[in-house]
Amino acid sequence: MATTATHAFLRRKIYFFSDAHLGIGASESDREKEQQIVAFLDMVARDGRELFIVGDLFDYWFEYRSVVPRGYVRLLGKLAALVDAGIAVTYLAGNHDFWMRGYLREELGIAIHGEPIERTLAGKRFYICHGDGLDPTDRGYRFLKRVFRNKVNIGLFSLLHPDLATAIARWSSQTSRKHTQDKPREEKSLLEFAAQRIREGCHVVIMGHSHVPTLTPVNGGTYVNLGDWIRHCSYAVFDGKATTLHHWNAQRAPRPRTRDKRRS
What we know:
The chain is of the alpha/beta class. The protein contains 8 helices and 12 strands. Strand 5 (117-121) and strand 6 (124-128) form a beta hairpin. Helix 2 (27-47) packs parallel to helix 3. The longest helix has 21 residues, at 27-47. It starts with a helix and ends in a 5-residue tail after the last strand. Mean pLDDT is 83; it is low at 1-6.
């Protein structure tokens, strides 16, 4: 009983990360990235009580009735182990996650959300979303989003052989990336959106998508962009009092990169 109580006390942190885009690079670098994320999840297992994956864990993901993309068994097994250990794992779909069905929920126990969510954590109101499609001038991406999330199109796509579907999915991911990655205008849109949510009563707004790790006080609250695991290996932690942004380094204990001084 004492050991169980100790574990419950230690598991007080809530972790957030996004935009790993596994599958974007060569197989060797992809395996190295997977190993880094698995090591990060080992840390989550030690003192985390909840994990939010805020979109685009994979560069593309499509589920047939009985087939899912090849690979990443170490990562998927680690996520399942977190859930089995009592750590809640929530996945918010990003712009590379158009074709999720029930696999991660049914096989791994992960809660899946296709839309933004609000959660109250230790008395703080969090708004969490991937962040895609917030730029009102980006009509090209908004059109692609409607095409990719259309149920009829998804049904037709599922009739393709998985090898052909994978090739098309890689093309669609590259097309989406051209519309979305690292635009200053888009980063401004994310910040403005976060400011509006904070004006409406949220304390912390967490997003990904822009691949630029950021923690900024806004309107008495905090805007966090989680960055990515392509260049930054960044993630956020809420310890019940403060939200902090970190860079993962497997060679030494992670240290805070930025801290919200007003402890939002």
